[in-house]
Design a protein that fits this description.
Length: 531
């Protein structure tokens, strides 16, 4: 079998990777739901990009499984429809030689026996010497309604005790605390926790993975990382599009379950956790769970909900309820802002604001750590420093820093210490989160996957709020498609979390003395912390 080498295929762009799949054991990856959206857009492209860079195990086969009957050509067409411009045709051909497709139902044992047979056929090709040590990865690119059926059939008809078995599950993991516990118990009855990889793809994003390094490899961050210096933290997710054909899903889950309870809370736990004892996955997950345990359930009065409405005029955008797959009177929130509190000695008194919305003015995911006011009389009324980690787009880390305005001026100005990855690391292409995570699965590394106790805590924090919203049928505030969210989004963050809008440009100058008063009167900038 020929594998493309990184140098051969990736051209000048490297992923900056120093690791391939460690275990060079014969490996079969089974993608359930191989006919679907996630498989097409994320799973197969991620597998391809790993293949293209020589990062898959040397002896690997990929078996797609779904109900839809597909010819090999049709399956290949689907599996490669999202590979992107980097995909050289010889690499695509090589990759497709590793991929086969089996069609079957999700609850029919005979179909799973046929799948097992196909896996064994593939095994013979990659494992002619019949080594007993092998890896099987079962990737559930499926709606949650069939997770359990498929897991049951895998265990009953496909599972091989002699192999290392890994099952990858996509979110949503349940609907609330109770359903999530039920799912965890059901899956737990079939697979041990170390066999389960719950994907939260935000944990595979470059800047989210970078938080640990920034915090614990740089002496100055840890020194100020507490309520002593930090005023508030804002974790923001903005998407510039609405339901886009996913109305049914969005309406069932809403923005809090879709993005906050998982992606944003995972990010929060890494920003807030203590230093882990080591970089071993269980040590990292212990620390995340420890901090989640100290988060108080969110109160309705600390929550702002919104739902987008259409815009009129030429090129107007549809409102949420204009989507045919959304029920007419839906009160599902497509925007939410919540204030959370971590009740431990490090963070008591620091509000954590989560904001998430669809159909907003831009695509952006940021973590904004706002420091307290400068406690000195030399420069009163200054704007606050902020450390901003921009997860997407254009990965960057910058610190909003006050400097003397350059030149003869005595004014101060807000500027930025800016580490923009696209400028600093021009030769490195940041891998997609799914490629990173699938590589972790192949390596058996759980660090960037959600453990069942973390999940339980995440639902404990959000479930009372979600149930109250549903019971009281709280009506979300309207906001226009393409806007910044419902009226009052900034006021809410400043009232509830003491957030001070930071000026893009900040000018400060000393109080005029009699000698300088004439110059001020002639029109220089007034002293203000806010623009
Ligand atoms: N799409 C995305 O961008 C993302 C998806 N996810 C998660 O990944 C998982 C898969 O998502 P996605 O690919 O979008 O889902 P799809 O709706 O595309 O479903 C995947 C496949 O599952 C089968 N399927 C669909 N509905 C049912 C049903 N009701 N009963 C049985 N089988 C069904 C279909 O295959 P067939 O009929 O051929 O069997 C379909 O091709 C979900 O858990 C989702 O939440 C997470 C992040 C992003
Ligand atoms: O899990 C989800 O995430 C996407 C956003 O992911 P991103 O990597 O593009 O930031 C979101 O659109 C989707 O609703 C949600 O299910």
């Amino acid at each position: 079998m020929s594998h493309a080498s990184p140098e051969q295929s990736a051209g000048a762009l490297t992923w900056g990777l120093d690791r391939a799949a460690k275990e060079d054991l014969p490996t079969t990856v089974v993608v359930f739901g191989a006919s679907g959206d996630l498989a097409k857009k994320k799973t197969f492209p991620a597998l391809f990009h790993l293949y293209q860079r020589g990062l898959l195990p040397k002896r690997v086969r990929i078996v797609g499984y779904a109900r839809t009957r597909l010819s090999p050509e049709d399956f290949h067409k689907r599996a490669t429809s999202f590979l992107g411009p980097e995909a050289a045709s010889k690499d695509v051909e090589g990759f497709l030689r590793l991929c086969v497709y089996v069609s079957g139902q999700y609850d029919v044992p005979d179909d799973f026996r046929a799948l097992r047979k196909e896996i064994e056929n593939q095994d013979t090709a990659i494992n002619p010497e019949g080594r007993s040590e092998r890896v099987r990865v079962y990737y559930m690119a499926l709606p949650p309604s069939v997770f359990l059926d498929v897991a049951t059939q895998i265990k009953g008809c496909v599972y091989d005790d002699g192999c290392t078995n890994r099952i990858v599950i996509e979110k949503p993991f349940g609907h609330d605390l109770e359903s999530s516990r039920q799912l965890s118990n059901d899956i737990g009855a079939l697979f041990s926790e170390h066999e389960v990889f719950r994907i939260d793809h935000y944990l595979g994003k470059e800047m989210v993975k970078n938080i640990l390094t920034l915090r614990f490899a740089n002496v100055f961050y840890e020194a100020v990382w507490s309520h002593h210096y930090i005023s508030n933290v804002q974790i923001t997710f903005k998407e510039p599009f609405g339901t886009e054909g996913r109305g049914g899903y969005v309406d069932e889950f809403g923005i809090i379950r879709d993005v906050m309870q998982n992606h944003l809370l995972q990010v929060l736990s890494i920003v807030a956790m203590r230093q882990p004892e080591s970089l071993r996955s269980e040590d990292i997950r212990d620390r995340k769970t420890e901090v989640l345990r100290r988060i108080l359930p969110i109160q309705l009065e600390d929550t702002l909900l919104g739902q987008y409405v259409g815009t009129r005029g030429g090129g107007g955008k549809p409102g949420y309820k204009d989507d045919d797959t959304v029920p007419a009177g839906s009160t599902t929130a497509t925007y939410a802002q919540c204030v959370l509190h971590v009740d431990n000695d490090r963070w008591r008194g620091v509000p954590w604001v989560m904001k998430a919305g669809k159909a907003l003015d831009e695509a952006k995911m940021t973590i904004r750590i706002q420091f307290k006011d400068m406690p000195n009389a030399l420069f009163p009324n200054l704007a606050r420093n902020e450390l901003v980690i921009q997860v997407s787009p254009k990965e960057s880390v910058y610190i909003k820093t006050i400097v003397k305005e350059p030149g003869l001026s005595t004014n101060l100005a807000m500027s930025e210490l800016d580490l923009s990855y696209h400028k600093r690391y021009q030769d490195i292409k940041i891998p997609d989160a799914y490629a990173t995570l699938i590589l972790d699965v192949l390596n058996g590394d759980h660090s960037n996957f959600v453990r069942s106790d973390e999940l339980d805590e995440a639902w404990r924090i959000f479930t009372p709020l979600l149930h109250q919203i549903e019971k009281e049928q709280v009506v979300p505030l309207p906001y226009e498609y393409g806007s910044r969210g419902p009226k009052g989004v900034d006021e809410f963050a400043s009232e509830r979390a003491g957030y001070k809008l930071s000026a893009r440009e900040y000018h400060w100058r000393p109080k005029p003395t009699p000698a300088t008063a004439t110059a001020t009167a002639k029109g220089s900038t007034p002293s203000t912390g806010k623009l």
